[in-house]
Amino acid sequence: MNARQMLKWAVLLLIPILLVSTGSAFAARKTFNIGVVSDGPLARFQEIAALYQSEIISMASSEFDVKFPADKQLDGGWTLAGVNQAIDRLLADPQVDIVITLGEVGTNEVCKRRNLPKPVIAPFVVDAEIQKLPIKGNASGVKNLSYINTYRNFNRAIKRFQEVVPFKRLAALSDQFAIEAIPNLQRPVGPIARKAQIRIEVVRVTDSAEEALQRVPPGVDAVLTTALPRFTPAEFRKLTDGLIERRLPSMTVTDYEEVQDGVLATTVPASAKQQLARNVAINTYEVLRGEPAGNLSTVFNEGETLTLNMATARAIGIYPGWRVLTEAELLNEEPGDRDQKITLFEAVREALVANLDLAVAGKNVTAGEQSVKERRSGLLPQIGISSQARIIDADRARNSLGTNPERLWTGSATASQLIYSEKTWAGYEIEKHLQNARVEELATVKLDIMQLAATAYLNVLRVKSIERI
């Protein structure tokens, strides 16, 4: 038998062994059942559940047989009691190995518990600090509890929104059930509004676009949407259409896909939803492998990407600045969206706003005004008031024979007016002349900038004219 025949027989003998080994490996996989609790019937539950199931199975299928039984997928019916009953039912079910909460309220409720009989993955924490959730290092520190803090910086989001379009009065659309079940979610509204120097009005909504639009107060400049889990896709589209009809700029801090549905802006990246599902899958896999849930990281960093729906921008008649447009991802972009038209007057005005030399000259004038006031103060009437109190012991008072009383309180008031001082008057007059010089310098710098900006603008027009010829 030659070498080639020997190799052939060896391969034929190895194939059955490999098949048996592979079959044994798959047969040895332990089965785990995962139960899911949502806050209520979700219009997109199948879509959301499929995403999480896909990520978990993809992560764990090589070692474990993970199942999501249909009768273990429960919802709380949009009531606090219903959510807790659903959680209790799955925690008590011996056929459920892990519980996942797909909702802000369910996540908050389960995170308040300290005696969990089985691992729970809670991925929808809005802000762990505000919700006063347990934290030990970067983990929950609670046995069988793994939550994910999906905290988003609302201060930063509103600042970016104001860069897109300025506003002073903002309506924040929030789910009524979440606000009532987690009252602390409203606590940061005041500080955020003060920092942004705006007025924020929280508008509670349920599942109706018409109702939500009616509740938006008149006089609002912009709208912010938070998680609205009860809205169907069609109803959410009605909401965005209504906001566009009222020419209200909008921003979502929850879902990138809402910009595709008509919201003007978001800072949520397109990958955020899948990234969160992947984090849940990683934590679930670690629990399956025996890692204590309370030791798993709660940190979630999705990053920030400004996205603008230019179709919405055109419909409501706003045009963000050039810097915003160059930084942002633009949806429904048309060829002219990045080519901002600017008049000569606007070019000069922008140059005056952005020029640092002019800003420095302006600060010098402001500082000079104070210098003039300081010089003038020496010519004004001077008033002085003083008071002194003293207490000594009784023995010393007696020994002083009346010259030092035991308790003494004295006060005095003085007033003076400078009649004439050549030095003081000269200093005041000199400072006034210096201030006039600063004002003239500011005007000179301003005129120079205007000339340079206008010249540059006209040169661009001249070059474009030559280019067309």
- The number of distinct structural domains comes to 4
The named CATH superfamily of the largest domain: Response regulator
CATH classification, class level of the largest domain:
Alpha Beta
CATH topology of the largest domain: Rossmann fold
Work out the strand percent.
15-25%
Output the radius of gyration.
35 Å
N/C terminus separation: 87 Å
List the total number of helices: 17
Protein described:
The chain is of the alpha/beta class. The chain folds into 4 domains: 30-151 and 272-302, Rossmann fold (3-Layer(aba) Sandwich), CATH 3.40.50; 154-267 and 306-331, 3-Layer(aba) Sandwich (Rossmann fold); 342-381 and 425-469; 383-416, no CATH class. Helices cover 48% and strands 17% of the residues. The chain is built from 17 helices and 15 strands. Strand 4 (98-102), helix 4 and strand 5 (120-125) form a beta-alpha-beta unit. The radius of gyration is 35 Å and the shape is flat. Residues 18-27 have low confidence and may be disordered.
Question: Which key phrases capture this entry?
Answer:
48% helix; Rossmann fold; 469 residues; alpha/beta; seven-stranded mixed β-sheet; six-stranded parallel β-sheet; single chain; 4 domains; flat
